Amino acid sequence: MNGGCVCGNIRFCATGSPDFPHLCSCPHCQRLSGAPVMAWVDFPEEGFGWTGPGGEPRWFQTYPATETHPAIERGFCPDCGASVASRGDVPGNVGVTIFALDDHSELVPEHQSFKDNAVPWMAQLG
Question: Of 91, 108, 114, 121, which is most buried with the most CB atoms under 10 A?
């Protein structure tokens, strides 16, 4: 599967199978997206590569590592600002925003993380 940012500077190719399409309502995703949820899907690091002229996205660490929580980084395009990726959440995987994919028609989120932080006016997923 291929995808990238709005301007095309950051592009990626994932040859592994997509895993765990989900929505996230954590405060970081809400602020990052300016929306009540972000939609994510994971791919194995093996078979995942950055293919655009900009190389890898610029990484921002959202959570410092603790004993109970890993360090999580969010990747965005330094030119257009689009959020495209996450790393550190699941070892061996790269998360990408579902809507950064060129074709996301087959991916349906199956879970919603951080439901306790979800807005009350939007239906939640199971």
Answer: 114
